[in-house]
Design goal:
2 domains, 244 residues, 9 helices, mainly alpha
Length: 244
Amino acid sequence: MTEEFTRRLNHFQSALDVLRLPQHLSVWEARPPLAFTAKVAAAEAATARLVALIRQAEQNRMLLFEKADIEEAELEQEACLIGHSLTLWLRDQNDERNAQKLDGSLSQWRRLTGIPLIDAARLVYQIGEVSMRGANSNTLAHYGVTTASLEKLRAETDDYAAALTAPEPSADCRIAQQVCQRSAEVETLFESIDTLIQHFRPVAGGSALIRAWTEARAERCSSHLRFLTDAAVHHKTPSSLVMV
């Protein structure tokens, strides 16, 4: 979820916590206008649904990251093994030029990530494929380099590339839309609370309740203003700007 969603959720929760403070709860709970109690209950329920949706979206995203990490580790291991084996074979063929292109320790492979790792793995595959068609290619199998092992490397490379570029699942997109809708639903309920809370001004403790609520609501506005300012400084127009 975006930073703005997180800020907005924190605002909803902290504002509702203000209403639940003992010194404020006694002012409004089950007291007229009863619509206020109903709106607070509805806002709490809507905020709980919003929390559940955001957690689900975060879990979906973590699964994508975990899959990419697994594919990366598998590719590093396979590319390093085939790369080392090819390096030994190339040097035995007095092909130092190509051997130097592939020579690298496992720790060096593990420092590669993303596109650089994919490019390095594809270089191993390309040199291996050319070597399979060259002189003395029949001895490559003695070094553990075979058509099957090269195809396995190619498949690992493709799997990692796919994991990196995987589009957001449609379910995740739907959740994002629902989060936006739920956020707007809570904000609408809060606006109702803004209006109805004014009825408690003549009640003992009412002024303190209204003041605390107003301050909590003002924090939402200042947080949103900071977000807009940060976006302007970085010359960005975040998608969250449409979520009013």
